[in-house]
Amino acid sequence: MADCIFCKIAAGEVNAKVVYEDEDTLAFIDLNPQAPTHALVIPRRHIDRLTAAQDGDAALLGKLQIAAAKVAKILKVDGAFRLVTNNGKGAGQSVDHLHYHLLGGRKLLWPPG
Ligand code: 5GP
Ligand code: ZN
């Protein structure tokens, strides 16, 4: 999608520290990390947010979860990490391209703020 920063990263038009990629998904380090390990896991195909996903996106969403688990292993936080998506502005979503934050490397408090 035009003017979507994550579509541009997925297309290789904007640089990012990519830690994992396959034909459907991509993971890269967040520009403004909130934990020692903070990666973003995205589908290459543009979906605005989780609530914009359709029944036909089920396989892609499953692949995203599998990719996230691989990323956790690659970044050596698979023993303790959090996977979270901010759905909508009120939840803190600032980039309208579905992404999961993968956070680890420090104690993660619950409930989150
Ligand atoms: P949100 O606020 O939508 O849940 O998360 C968006 C995340 O994307 C933020 O944590 C922000 O730091 C990150 N981000 C925004 N633009 C870029 C970028 O151009 N490159 C990278 N690597 N991260 C970005
Ligand atoms: Zn996009």
Task: Explain what you see.
With 113 residues, the chain is of the alpha+beta class. It has 2 helices and 5 strands. The N and C termini lie far apart (31 Å).
Question: What is this entry, summarized?
Answer:
This protein is of the alpha+beta class and 113 residues long.
What topology does this entry show?
Blueprint: H1 5-10, E1 18-21, E2 25-29, E3 37-43, H2 58-74, E4 81-84, E5 100-104
Antiparallel strand pairs: 1-2, 2-3, 3-5, 4-5
The structure holds guanosine-5'-monophosphate and zinc ion.
Zinc ion (ZN) binds at residues 1, 4, 6-7, 46, 97.
Instruction: Tell me the distance between the termini.
Output: 31 Å
> How are the strands of the largest sheet arranged?
1-2-3-5-4
Helix/strand order, N-terminal first: HEEEHEE
Give helix % range: 10-25%
Q: What proportion strand? A: 15-25%
Instruction: Provide the structure class.
Output: alpha+beta
Tell me the number of strands. Answer: 5
Taking the sheet with the most strands, its summary is: 5 strands, antiparallel
Low-confidence stretches: none
Mean pLDDT: 97
- Radius of gyration using CA atoms only: 13 Å
Rough shape? globular
* Total count of helical runs of at least 4 residues: 2
Notable traits:
binds zinc ion; five-stranded antiparallel sheet; alpha+beta; 22% strand; binds guanosine-5'-monophosphate
